[in-house]
Amino acid sequence: MTAVTDSYFSALIGRLETLREALAEPMARASEAICAAARGDRRVYVFGTGHSHMLAEEVHYRAGGLAFTIPVLVGSAMLHEGAVISSVYERTEGLIRPIFERYGMQPGDVLIIASNSGVNAAPLEAADYGREIGATVIAITSLAYSAAIANGRRKLADIADIVLDNGLPPGDAMIDLPRTGLKVGPASTAVGTTVLNAIFADVAAELCKDGDPPVYLSANMPGAKEINQQLVRKYRPRNPHL
Q1: What pLDDT, on the 0 to 100 scale, is given for residue 120?
Q2: Domain SIS, which positions (predicted)?
Q3: The pTM is what?
Q4: Quick one: which of 60, 161, 65, 61 has its CA closest to 109?
Q5: What residue ranges define each of the domains in the chain, with the CATH number in brackets?
Q6: Closest Cα to residue 153, out of 121, 126, 189?
């Protein structure tokens, strides 16, 4: 391992170790909110733009994942339809509400929004929509990044019911490149997916008290076809991506 790769591993591991304690209380609250939604036959929506959209896909139809999660996928605000224009889209006001209206979000649902900067129009409008509907809004964001660039604007953390601060620096990247002033090694995706998977694992363990939780199996595992088909039949009516 080179000095640079070792530095990145050390920085990422150090961040996760710090978050284990720093996020203990808000992660417990997030788990409680998701458990309540699951027990009320509600859904958990996950939304992000740019690279943050990967957190929505991370929990969708995932081996070892819970079947009541629904990704909110906005192609033009992701990367595959044009990375440059997606950056414009996520900053344009008034475009997100019509997207969310097609998902049928209901009171008692949970909406998880991933936005590292926490100041762009799309995640803020999504949070406003979730609050209006009566969903519990959970933010995964960097408070330091938001504070550095908000300049008086509202921040996602101001709207959310529960805030999971990833503790990452403004700009996301953690490793300095000598003599350049540049940084590499972004970490918001790695940290965000770790936090999400930890929360959902905790939720699944809690739901075991009620019986077998709705967990997908890897398609290559024995019995996976039958179990996954049952889950898809149950949850497809409210999940347009199944």
Answers
A1: 87
A2: 30-209
A3: 0.94
A4: 161
A5: 3-238 (3.40.50.10490)
A6: 121
